[in-house]
Amino acid sequence: QVQVVESGGGLVQAGGSLRLSCVASGSRFSISAMGWYRQTPGKQRELVALITNGGHTSYADSVKGRFSISRDNAKNTVYLQMNSLKPDDTAVYYCYVAITNTWGQGTQVTVSS
């Protein structure tokens, strides 16, 4: 059973930065696309960033130029570097392992104005 654990969330002022990490167990990490999603109360979970097993990346328009997704297959870890944070970025951020359709428990990011 794949386990996915996120970390790195917290409270930050607008304009600040955070780096989220996601560690996924299992031997198939390196061949799986990985994604970061976020959700706020009353809204659907939305895709923030995606990275394929080949390293290709894509981003939601709202975070382009501010967020960067990367992966370290040797550590079974995917990162989300978030810069120039805005209050609208406040959400619970979830890591997703595509090949096993597995979600992490989420990590709260709160951006104060």
Secondary-structure element order, N to C: EEEEEEEEEEE
- Assign a percent range to the helix content: under 10%
Counting DSSP H or I runs of 4 or more residues, the number of helices is 0
| Secondary structure tally: strands | 11
**Which residues form runs of ≥5 with pLDDT under 50?**
none
Please give a structural write-up:
By secondary structure, the protein is mostly beta strands. The protein has no helices and 11 strands. It starts with a strand and ends with a strand. The mean pLDDT is 95.
What is the strand and helix layout of this fold?
Elements: E1 4-7, E2 10-13, E3 18-24, E4 34-39, E5 46-51, E6 57-59, E7 67-72, E8 77-82, E9 91-97, E10 102-103, E11 107-112
Parallel strand pairs: 2-11
Antiparallel strand pairs: 1-3, 3-8, 4-5, 4-9, 5-6, 7-8, 9-10, 9-11
Please describe the structure with a list of short key phrases separated by commas or semicolons.
four-stranded antiparallel beta sheet; mainly beta; globular; 113 residues
In brief:
The chain is 0% helix and 50% strand.
